[in-house]
Amino acid sequence: MVDRLANSEANTRRISIVENCFGAAGQPLTIPGRVLIGEGVLTKLCRKKPKARQFFLFNDILVYGNIVIQKKKYNKQHIIPLENVTIDSIQDEGDLRNGWLIKTPTKSFAVYAATATEKSEWMNHINKCVSDLLSKSGKSPSSEHAAVWVPDSEAAVCMRCQKAKFTPVNRRHHCRKCGFVVCGPCSEKRFLLPSQSSKPVRICDFCYQLLATGEVAACQASRSDSYSHSPKSSLNDVSDEDDDEDSSD
């Protein structure tokens, strides 16, 4: 089916419409063999609160952006190569329902669909696209992925020292290795994580010690899945602001 659609006029037209919605600031999406599989609005769990984002699933990439005018204009385009993607289901918790993790070496985050059926369809289509890509390339599934950031609302105090309370002056920071919310004194170190940045990035003291001694895997293994316990955010609390987790902290 995908191969048959690849060179169809209808597929070319659909992709062109997506390109136009992102405008000149977006990257070109039309390439030979690329097929638009589906699209829809998902709620993305960002650093400060859940936010509505428009997602487009192609046979080789996942694209998402901020909604400016529904079905007409989007900005802040993000493109994720599906070859590097793994996904995991998330248990329902309060208002956060029908969710799954999208994990890549560069960035990982949680998204939520409106219904269980929609969640199942998204996950099945993503897994099928990833499987087809890996089958064609002969590559193995990605074993490395960036940590999913713990939302700010889940940490009133530093998750490492358990002492420093966060205030407008004592700001929250995120360790790029484990995803914990930490205070400044607990995250003064920088370490080069090539999959995430060409420059050294902020990590907590705990992860720095493990990385410095070569115990890389233990950093992420040291934290439980942040989505197995009580985020207090409401899915109705969404906006079209920039992604908070793209900030420097």
Automatic annotation (TrEMBL):
What GO molecular function annotations does the UniProt record carry, in alphabetical order? phosphatidylinositol binding; zinc ion binding
Membrane topology qualifier: Peripheral membrane protein
Q: Does the keyword Metal-binding apply?
A: yes
What are the GO BP annotations of this UniProt entry? endosome organization; endosome to lysosome transport; protein transport
Keywords in alphabetical order, please. Answer: Endoplasmic reticulum, Endosome, Membrane, Metal-binding, Protein transport, Transport, Zinc, Zinc-finger
Q: Where is this region: Disordered?
A: 221-249
Looking up InterPro entries in the UniProt record yields: PH-like_dom_sf, PH_domain, PH_domain-containing_F, PH_Phafin, PLEKHF2_FYVE, Znf_FYVE, Znf_FYVE-rel, Znf_FYVE_PHD
Q: Which residues form the FYVE-type domain?
A: 152-212
Q: Where is the composition biased (Polar residues)?
A: 221-232
For this UniProt entry, what's an example GO CC term? endoplasmic reticulum
* CDD domains in UniProt: FYVE_PKHF2 (cd15755), PH_Phafin2-like (cd01218)
Q: Which domain of life is it from?
A: Eukaryota
| A Pfam family hit | FYVE
Q: Which part of the chain is the PH domain? A: 35-131
Does this entry carry the keyword Oxidoreductase?
no
Q: Where in the cell is it found?
A: Early endosome membrane; Endoplasmic reticulum
Compositionally biased tracts (Acidic residues): 238-249
- Functional note: May play a role in early endosome fusion upstream of RAB5, hence regulating receptor trafficking and fluid-phase transport. Enhances cellular sensitivity to TNF-induced apoptosis.
Q: What is this protein called?
A: Pleckstrin homology domain-containing family F member 2
